[in-house]
């Protein structure tokens, strides 16, 4: 019996600044189904993210697709209308919030390399990442309403990324927008011509990987913790985190390297 093929490929590449530091590329690899977010694919993706998060050599995690034109088509529509009992379908829904929470809570920066269309539930995955870099030719959107569904699970992420009217437009009309339009709405960090995408992605990721992994982790945890706090509570928490940063060797090393006009050597302490 042939073993089932992996739906998410895991690959490590050394960073430009430090051969011992790695970038983890997690490639959605179910092209025949346009990387539909089946239970199996989501389970593999969550495992791969957790694996990269636990690897001390990994500085940055990149989500990307093997499909020529589609990052992911979103939720598996066939599963929406199958004959499984509702309680079974409901139990499977936890995969999306678990993945979203994991992406936002891990210490390492996660980059969505949108090298194809980002649709429906996949838009939620992209927005749960810390940064999104997109090919100029791609489209983004949540067309679920066109098939009698609604993007319930990803609505919280869309509302946190853009304005209410833009979010309502995307969810209620189901229209797809260009990468350039997505950037004006604050849904994408950078749009790159297709022919330049691979090179710019590597440059983009290497730049992030060159930063202190310790301070990056402290900062990302602070962002996650204060996102929904009141201003007063957030300021108190952030003051404490800044005080903690002052105790690290990496902060001293970063300032010293800047003054000496050299590349810092992070100690991760």
Automatic annotation (TrEMBL):
Q: Name one GO molecular function term.
A: isomerase activity
- Entries under InterPro entries matching the protein: ClpP/crotonase-like_dom_sf (IPR029045), Enoyl-CoA_hydra/iso (IPR001753), Enoyl-CoA_Hydratase/Isomerase (IPR051683)
Q: Which Pfam families match?
A: ECH_1 (PF00378)
Q: Which domain of life is it from?
A: Bacteria
Q: Which UniProt keywords apply?
A: Isomerase
Sequence similarity: Belongs to the enoyl-CoA hydratase/isomerase family.
Q: What is this protein called?
A: Enoyl-CoA hydratase/isomerase family protein
Species whose genome carries this gene: Mycolicibacterium hodleri
Lineage of source species: Bacteria, Bacillati, Actinomycetota, Actinomycetes, Mycobacteriales
């Amino acid at each position: 019996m042939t073993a089932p093929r992996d739906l998410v490929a895991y690959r490590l590449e050394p960073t430009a600044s430090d051969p011992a530091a790695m970038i983890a590329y997690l490639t959605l690899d179910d092209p025949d189904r346009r990387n539909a977010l089946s239970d199996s694919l989501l389970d593999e993706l969550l495992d791969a993210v957790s694996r990269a998060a636990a690897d001390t050599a990994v500085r940055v995690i990149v989500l990307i697709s093997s499909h020529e034109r589609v990052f992911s088509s979103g939720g598996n529509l066939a599963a929406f209308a199958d004959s499984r009992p509702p309680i079974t379908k409901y139990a499977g829904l936890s995969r999306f919030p678990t993945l979203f929470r994991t992406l936002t809570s891990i210490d390492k920066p996660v980059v969505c390399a949108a090298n194809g269309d980002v649709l429906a539930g996949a838009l939620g995955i992209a927005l749960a990442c810390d940064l999104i870099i997109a090919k100029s030719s791609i489209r983004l959107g949540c067309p679920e309403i066109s098939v009698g569904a609604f993007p319930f699970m990803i609505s919280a992420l869309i509302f946190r990324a853009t304005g209410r009217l833009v979010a309502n437009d995307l969810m209620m009309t189901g229209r797809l927008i260009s990468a350039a339009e997505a950037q004006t709405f604050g849904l994408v960090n950078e749009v790159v011509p297709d022919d330049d995408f691979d090179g710019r992605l590597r440059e983009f990721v290497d730049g992030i990987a060159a930063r202190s992994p310790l301070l990056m982790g402290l900062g990302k945890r602070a962002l996650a913790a204060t996102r929904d706090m009141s201003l007063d509570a957030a300021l108190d928490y952030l003051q404490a985190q800044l005080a903690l940063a002052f105790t690290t060797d990496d902060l001293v090393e970063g300032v010293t390297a800047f003054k000496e006009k050299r590349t810092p050597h992070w100690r991760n302490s």
